Hints:
Layout: H1 3-19, H2 26-46, H3 54-66, H4 69-79, E1 89-94, H5 102-108, E2 112-118, H6 121-134, E3 139-143, E4 153-159, H7 164-171, E5 175-185, H8 190-194, E6 200-208, E7 217-224
Parallel strand pairs: 1-2, 1-4, 2-3, 4-5
Antiparallel strand pairs: 5-7, 6-7
Amino acid sequence: MSVVSNTSLEYTLREGANALGLDLSEAQITQLLDFLALLQKWNKVYNLTAVRDPQEMLTHHLLDSLAAVPPLRRHVAQTGQGSAARPGARLLDVGSGGGLPGVVFAICCPEVDVSCVDTVAKKAAFIQQAAGTLGLSNLHGIHARVETLAGPFDVVSCRAFAALADFTAWSRQALAPHGVWLAMKGKHPHDEIAALPADVGVFHVEQLTVPGLQAERCILWLRPVA
């Protein structure tokens, strides 16, 4: 990649982070750019994402994932996780693929312990490589089916992974008693919400604006209900 491209990517990332109200350290900016470079490198061999153009990858993947960081930070702060009484929240990112949003969460929320699970071994291996290369001790790649994981995880997340009913059913045993699901979606999934079982409830729908991306995005927050 040329120096001009690197400068352009860094500028777009900084502008996007500012637009999202994200106060990122220089180290975090560097880690995000290094993660993008790593994703490009591995993508040539392992086909981690269909998006190939670096600038498009930055907007469609990195900034798209970054848009969910403020809501996640707010949730962790509100629940008191990461405090002395309740050290570090544990997050499970399901069907993480190339680590989106899991790796981005691990970079931007060092107080959160992030495990990325995928049924494809090479994708889990990529997460482990990213953890080592980026120096993220709070990031782990797991090669498994989510149904086999016991948890407990305080937050179980996904990004365009599966229908809400399937996502919550497959990951339910991994959810802590007080835990919540964080599902990143495009348009408001009315049909998927209607198809949820009676013991799963949506308690908040949060609209997201992704810098540079002209597309609808939202987060659905769900929890088990009695």
